[in-house]
Amino acid sequence: MLDIKFIRENPEQVRTNTHNKHERGDVDAILSLDQQRRALIGETETLKNRRNVVTQEIAKLKKSGEDASSLIEEMRIVSDTIKAHDEELRGIEQNLETALMRLPNMLHHSVPHGEDASGNVEIRRQGECGEQGFRKNHVEIGKQLGILDFERGAKVTGSGFGFYVGKGASLERALINFMLDFHLEKHGYSEIFPPFLVNAASLRGTGQLPKMEEDLYTCEKDELYLIPTAEVPITNFYRDEMLPHDALTIKLCGYSACFRREAGSYGKDTRGFLRVHEFNKVELVKFAKPETSYVELESLVIDVEEILQALHIPYRVLLLCDGDTSFSSAKTYDLEAWSPCEQKWLEVSSCSNFENFQARRANIRYKEPNGKPEFVHTLNGSGLATSRLMVAILEHYQTEDGHIRVPEVLRPYTRFDMI
């Protein structure tokens, strides 16, 4: 959420930012509600001051035996007016908060301008983009080896779901455990295993509500939601808390299954793991001081890159343009793995700095010694999502005789080297 004072002082900048992000936040409505709110607070405070003064006069008149009935009647009207103002103020503040919730985060000055993904800027890449050659795509090789079953996934649940079977399940589990251990041991994260269900307040805190409501799986009876990413519960771990200044930067790492309806995916390639409704992901979350958060963003990207380097998967790093940057993010890097069979780049991670946007919504603050409380900066990144990464692994490690070599770094976890 943006600071109302910032919006008040920079309305044109906020309008331009909203337009560049292709969002529909109503800056004019926010300014109007803010003006109404401040005017009403001023009127109410004046009435309350009048009531305090007159109450003392009434007490003096009563003490001296004089008639105070006219002042008592005046104060009855004043009290009724204050009560009506308080009710009106609650309505205005609720509408203002709703409008603020729909206003996107401000972009960092280093984010390039572009209408869509075509405006993203490649920062660097590593590895060669190979041809398909003898390789079969992940659906074909997965079925041939009996390690993936999308037909039974569709039967048991529906389209966009699949089974990992036998050594395929072991490979998936190995990949998750390897990534967790790598980030914990090499990068200094602390592990957290979050719940996969959250309440609406948590989703508002990280910005999925109200913006992304149609993409969420909802348990209406219990007023809970299946998480679209572990970012939600891990970031909200500190909701409504004051963090010790000397604890920052806090670095948390956790695995979760992720659930997304993908309501806007009509017409996109949905074959196999290219677009699924449930997938596994190791998430990295940081809570940082404002002055260090962009250094932390760069190190976050490097942390993710080192996983891809250890797996020897060709990848590239993109800086997203404003038109492709998410609602809540101030700056985002995407990491994409090369798919020889698809002959295209597959997004496997997004690393973002949200500055204080999420912290303001979730009320996560820290306090410097002898200073006033400040909102932390939150960051997160996929470290990594396994579904499309599995596509890249099955393709890159495929042999001409139709088997899969297990990446060397995963063999201590699988205890086999070939599928």
Furnish the topology, listing elements before pairings.
Blueprint: H1 4-9, H2 11-20, H3 27-63, H4 69-101, E1 121-126, H5 138-145, E2 148-149, H6 150-156, E3 163-164, H7 167-186, E4 190-191, E5 197-198, H8 200-206, E6 218-219, E7 224-226, H9 231-235, E8 241-244, E9 250-259, E10 278-288, H10 293-311, E11 315-319, E12 331-339, E13 344-353, H11 357-362, E14 364-367, E15 373-375, E16 377-385, H12 386-396, H13 411-414
Helix pairs in contact: 3-4
Summarize the structure.
With 419 residues, this protein is an alpha+beta fold. Helices cover 41% and strands 20% of the residues.
Describe, in plain words, how this protein is organized in 3D:
By secondary structure, this protein is an alpha+beta fold. The chain has 2 domains: 4-101, Serine-tRNA synthetase, tRNA binding domain (Helix Hairpins, Orthogonal Bundle); 117-414, 2-Layer Sandwich (BirA Bifunctional Protein, domain 2), CATH 3.30.930.10. It is built from 13 helices and 16 strands. The strands form 4 sheets. Strands 1-11-12-13-16-10-9-4 form an 8-stranded mixed β-sheet. A hairpin with a 5-residue loop joins strand 14 and strand 15 (373-375). Helix 3 packs antiparallel against helix 4 (69-101). The longest helix has 37 residues, at 27-63. The protein is elongated and about 105 Å long.
